[in-house]
Amino acid sequence: MREKIKKIDYWLVAILILAAFLYGWNIWKAGYANQFYTAAIVSMSKSWKAFWYGSFDPASFITVDKPPVALWFMVICVKIFGFHSWSIVLSSVLFGIGSVFLMYKLIKPYFGRLAANLGALFMTLTPIVVANSRTNNMDATLVFFLLLAGYVLHKSIQKHKPLLVLVSFALIGIAFNIKMLQAFMVLPTMYFFYFIASKQNWKKKSLWTIAATASLAVFTLAWPLAVDSTSKSSRPYIGSSTNNSVLNLAFGYNGTERLLGQSTGTGGAFPGMNSKNKGKAGNMPGGNKPSQSKNGNMKKPSGTKPSGSMKKPSGQIGQGGPGGNNQAPGKNQKIANSTKTKQPSNSMKKPSGKMGGQKPGKMGKGGPGGKGGGQGAGGGIFNVGKAGPFRIFQTALGQQVSWLLPLSLIGFVIAYFNEWRKKRKWFKFNKRQTHLLYWFGWLVPVYGFFSMAQFFHPYYMIMIAPPIAALAAIGIASFVENKTKKKKVEELAEHDSKEENLANDDVVEVEKEAKFASKVNTYLMAVAVLATAGLQAWYVYEYYSWATYLLIIAGLAVAAYIVLSANKKFNKKASLSAILVTLLLAPGFWSLTPTLSGESAAIPTSGPSLLSSNNVNGSFGSGSANTKMISYLEKHNGNATYLFATMDSNTAAPYIIKTGKAVMTIGGYNGTDNAISLKKFKQLVKAGKVKYFYLTNDNGNNNAIVKWVKKYGTKVSLSKYGGNSTSSHAMSGGPGNSNGTLYKLSVK
């Protein structure tokens, strides 16, 4: 027992506790988090059919825009603990902590405890990792599975068990069914690492690579092919696809459109997003002209009620949302555009300065805290900066993930240099070099993709967090290792002399080489500290100009200390403390902001703006349900399958969450999906499965179904049950916004 206790890495334990605090504290204030996925969680917990397909509604009319694997874990948490604000994000919290642990396990066998602990710490204190781990989006789950796949691949090399290679690539296939092609961004480094690290001959490597690729294909395509091969009349419409196909969703909306710009779903142009439909009128719900269905022969949706084979999640959301104490949504009041049920205390001062993709101290309209709506606090919906090789360094994305990026790049050079000089043949890689190249091979394609991509959210930057954390940690650890070797010059010279029978002149040459290597380490680390501190100084200037000068002074002081102490006895604790304190204070504070504010947004982000008492976050997926309208519909709906039909999911989500009943979204997430034709819709109305249609103002005016509803539907006056003639949804700048009108439908 004592031996086991001695083996415990208490620094790792402390880091995991820190991660648990940052990711888990205040999640009971999460409200509905991302309502789009929360509605799916409710629906999937009520029906096995909805569970399998990842349906948005309990009747399985349409799916969400991602595969269901990540949602499965969330539903399991809800089934175990009941439906609460914390239970819907619990799996993300656990996967976030798990990712920190995997960082440690990946690095330790190659570079030791110091590097492993630093890698885990840097991952923990990456702001976008904190923000993602506090919401019910899929990214925290995705990164965990990618790290797990990498860990299994490394184990297959270390243990000489090639079968584990198949498991590793199978995990990538599972990750595909979390966020589709985003999971494949690590495949280049997986293949490359296996080829350079495996000690097998080329023939065996090739055979195992083919087998691994087959394993990848099986686990990647199992769910998509199972769904696509099912009759369209027996399954839900695939949300955000153009032809009701999972593979179309994977390679279109969740594939090429991420790089080239969106041509489906949201037709309107957003900041930072190149839309092929830009300029077309009203492609956004709430605009004028969403696309119409051209296929009048679309299969009729199943229209079946939830089977009831799964119990309704316990713990209905009452006052203030799940686990909250505020007024429940749906009291006919406007709800702030936020996924949180409780705002931070008004006693907290608003940070000075604003944030966005502009120059320090400036921000255009529509930025966080600005007047543009649709921009989440601290980052915005599509506030991703200007495409180019330095986009990841820009404030829009950099403030979320790039705090240690200069250190990671220079750290890679330091560590690789220290390993390269230990051998004679440049084309042969030792174990440490293969591990370094694994992380660098992860960094490069992800960095390259997001430098060019036209359609993504800032929180996708979690994909680049692991390699940044790993390379920065390894760089520091390699520098410390180089500087703390006792009598390193003499020992290196003596070792080389014995091994290669070098003459005295050669020994002197080796000593000179070792001293040169020490100088290279010194100056590279000094440059890394200066560059990193300088970048961080730029990031904080938008909020705290005084902190900019402190960071610059601290960076200069630490860099000077590293250089001036190069020829003296190296003080490991002092040097490490100086570097870490200087370079972690700013990102550490940024990482703390989602925790302090209880942030759990549809568009997760971080930054001091979250601490503002008038913070507005979340944007998409932050609506409210009109409880009086719900009462009216439940009283007059009879045996209808759907509580009502509407254009988009942001209008429908609060009602699904509140009631657990099906709401038909004929246009899917943004109101632009061709999920059902007018002919099929009229058939459902005639069959009594849809009796009401709720239309927000100017929502889909050019949609054939909307035209028919306006022409033949009967307006229901909300004043009949004590309300206004319209109900309100406080969705600023997105689908489901403004006021709405309820229509009663009938077909003669």
UniProtKB/TrEMBL annotation:
GO biological process: lipopolysaccharide biosynthetic process; response to iron(III) ion
Residues passing through the membrane, by range: 9-28, 71-104, 110-131, 138-157, 163-194, 206-226, 401-417, 437-453, 459-480, 522-540, 546-564, 576-593
Zinc keyword on record: no
Major place of residence: membrane
Any Gene Ontology CC annotation: plasma membrane
Region described as Disordered: 262-377
Gly residues bias spans: 354-377
Keyword field contains Transferase: yes
Domain named Glycosyltransferase RgtA/B/C/D-like: residues: 65-223
A single MF term (Gene Ontology): pentosyltransferase activity
Domain Putative mannosyltransferase YkcA/B-like C-terminal: 629-711
Residue ranges with Low complexity bias: 325-334
Annotated InterPro entries: LipidA_mod_glycosyltrf_83, RgtA/B/C-like, YkcA/B-like_C
Extent of Polar residues compositional bias: 335-346
Membrane topology: Multi-pass membrane protein
Keywords per UniProt: Cell membrane, Glycosyltransferase, Membrane, Transferase, Transmembrane, Transmembrane helix
Cell compartments where the protein resides: Cell membrane
This protein's name: Phospholipid carrier-dependent glycosyltransferase
Species whose genome carries this gene: Lactobacillus jensenii
Lineage: Bacteria, Bacillati, Bacillota, Bacilli, Lactobacillales
